[in-house]
Amino acid sequence: KKKILNELLLLEFSSRDSSIHVMSHYKDGSPLFLAVDEVPHLPGILLLFKIGEVLLLDIRDPYHANCVYRANLCVPISSETKDVSNECCRTLEVDDEGIFSVAACALLELSDSGMDISKEDDPMSIDGESSKFISNSSFICTWDWDPEKSANSKMIFCTDAGELYMLSVSCDVQGYFKVAITSCLYDGLHCKKLLWVKGGFIASFVEMGDGLILKLDEGRLFYQSSIQNICPILDVSVVDYHNEEQYQIFAACGVGSEGSLRIIRSGINIEKLLRTAPIYEGVTGIWSLRMKKGDAFHAFLVISFVEETRVLSVGVSFCDVTDSVGFFPDSCTVACGLVEDRVLVQICRHEVRICVPTVTAHSEGIPSSYPICKSWKPEDLTINLGAVGNNLIVVATSNPCILFILGTRLLSFCNYEIFEIQKIKLQAEVSCISIPQEDCSAQETLQSTITFAGGSPQAFLPNGIEICKTFVIGTHKPSVELLSLVPREGFKVLAVGKISLTNAMGTAISWCIPQDVRIVILDQFYIVSGLRNGMLLWFQWPAISSSSSSDYVSPNWTATDLPSMVLPLVTENMQQYVTVNVNEASEGSSPVQLQLVAARRIGVTPVFLAPLSESLYADIIALCDRPWLLQTARQSQRIAYTSISFQSASHVTPICSADCPKGILFVAENCLHL
Question: A Pfam family in this protein (predicted)?
Answer without folding.
Answer: Beta-prop_RSE1_2nd
